[in-house]
Amino acid sequence: MKLSLVYTTRYGSTQLAAEAIARGCEDRGIAPAEIELRDLREDSSMPAGEIVVIGAPIYGGTIPKPVSRFVEANLDSLLGRRIAIYLSCLYDGERAEKQLADNFPARLIAHSFGQYYVGGRVELTQLRWLDRVIMKRVGGVERDVDRSNPGEIRRLIDDVGAR
After folding, report:
1. Number of domains in the chain
2. Burial of 148 (0-12, 13-18, 19+ CB in 10 A)
3. What confidence tens digit (pLDDT) does each residue in 64-92 have?
């Protein structure tokens, strides 16, 4: 089984989640040669994986352009594969579900075998000035936050392993 983890990241949380998913899948017996990690800023072509896991951070309520362009350009191909979607964001529950629904086509969400909210972290000192302003005003973040959700990453790994 070939597994492709495609993502983009601005400050690293989404990439850290992709790497944790890859390690967890290796621990579950998927050979490292069968796992592809791909940053969509570097290569936005359709991957070869039978299973494609799409990872995206949320900034100001939206996913980055490399992810939305990838999904738009490859929607028909993605609908022919086994798909999972994860968001790296500070929210869970209804707010995270709304962010997913606002940013991904309903057909892709319905087709996916799972949607996951892996949490995220914000180190305000690492953010560019405008991102800091957005985090404070839109996200209400006044200090460094770590809302990583390893349980949700494990759930995704379990679901991939069950495929």
Report:
1. 1
2. middle
3. 999 999 999 999 999 999 999 999 987 78
Out of 5-14, 25-34, 77-86, the most confident range is: 77-86
pLDDT at 144: 75
Q: Within a 13 Å sphere around the CA of 19, how many CA atoms are in the beta-carbon half? A: 6
Q: What is the largest CA-CA distance in the chain?
A: 44
Q: How do beta strands 145-146 and 121-122 pair?
A: antiparallel
Segments forming the whole domain that contains residue 48: 3-161
Only one residue has tokens 């039978």, namely: 50
Contact partners, residue 51, CB within 8 Å, separation at least 6: 1, 2, 3, 4, 81, 82, 83, 84, 160, 163
Helix (H) or strand (E) holding 73, with range, is: helix 65-78
Q: Is the Cβ–Cβ distance between 158 and 22 less than 8 Å? A: no
**β-sheet bridge partners, residue 59:** 62
CA–CA gap between residue 36 and residue 1 (Å, rounded): 11
Residues 6+ apart with CB under 8 A from 54: 6, 7, 67, 70, 71, 78, 83, 84, 85, 86
CATH value at residue 59: 3.40.50.360
State both tokens at 93: 């529950």
